[in-house]
């Protein structure tokens, strides 16, 4: 069982990363735009399945490899911090473009594969999830339970965001401002990861 502070840190890290724009969230928003909230809501199940598979594989691999290479957890945190910093700079420079021009609806398989290949999974497994989550089944189930409870409403929020864009109700929202606000949050998160890697 995690302590209250460990559970809160896990929850905060999961929320920050899940809220940030990325390939999965872009697909969810595009699905909301094209299909509406009710039809696209089922895609959050595919998102959860994709993340569960990828996080588990990354977590078990890193946990096993760290026994032979003790420096690996710190190196993973540093690489993840650099990735988040790169993502923040990239987001600052470009606006999120929803793939509204796609002709086919986004299906469960598409979202599952995109999520499984999402670099955020390595970030979750290597930095945000405690190492204990991959050392025993109870801790793993607790960590994934916290993750699932947060993922579902955040995924639905992205779908609803896309649906609102499609309805024309968010004309006041400038993509550039939303993107740059998100990039600032990512930049702060990247600095936090860098600090944690050395402490």
UniProtKB/TrEMBL annotation:
**Identification of the protein by name:** Multidrug transporter MatE
* Taxonomic source organism: Achromobacter aloeverae
Highest taxon of source: Bacteria
From the Swiss-Prot or TrEMBL record, state where the protein is found: Cell membrane
GO CC list: plasma membrane
- Listed GO molecular functions? amino acid transmembrane transporter activity
Keywords, A to Z? Cell membrane, Membrane, Transmembrane, Transmembrane helix
| Annotated membrane topology | Multi-pass membrane protein
The UniProt entry, under InterPro entries, shows:
LeuE-type
The regions listed as transmembrane in this protein's record are 6-28, 40-61, 81-101, 121-140, 146-166, 178-198
Q: What is an annotated GO biological process for this record, any one? A: cysteine export across plasma membrane
| Coarse class of the protein's main subcellular location | membrane
């Amino acid at each position: 069982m995690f302590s209250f502070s460990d559970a809160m840190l896990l929850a905060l890290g999961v929320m920050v990363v899940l809220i940030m724009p990325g390939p999965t969230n872009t697909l969810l928003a595009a699905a909301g735009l094209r299909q509406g909230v009710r039809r696209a809501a089922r895609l959050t199940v595919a998102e959860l399945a994709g993340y569960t598979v990828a996080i588990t594989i990354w977590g078990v691999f890193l946990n096993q490899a760290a026994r032979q290479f003790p420096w690996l957890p710190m190196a993973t945190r540093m690489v993840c911090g650099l990735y988040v910093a790169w993502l923040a700079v990239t987001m600052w420079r470009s606006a999120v473009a929803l793939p509204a021009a796609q002709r086919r609806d986004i299906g469960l398989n598409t979202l599952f594969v995109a999520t499984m290949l999402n670099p955020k999974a390595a970030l979750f497994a290597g930095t945000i999830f405690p190492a204990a989550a991959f050392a025993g089944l109870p801790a793993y189930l607790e960590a994934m339970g916290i993750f699932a409870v947060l993922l579902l409403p955040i995924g639905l929020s992205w779908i609803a965001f896309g649906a609102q864009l499609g309805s024309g109700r968010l004309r006041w929202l400038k993509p550039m401002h939303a993107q740059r606000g998100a990039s600032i949050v990512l930049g702060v998160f990247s600095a936090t990861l860098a600090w944690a890697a050395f402490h």
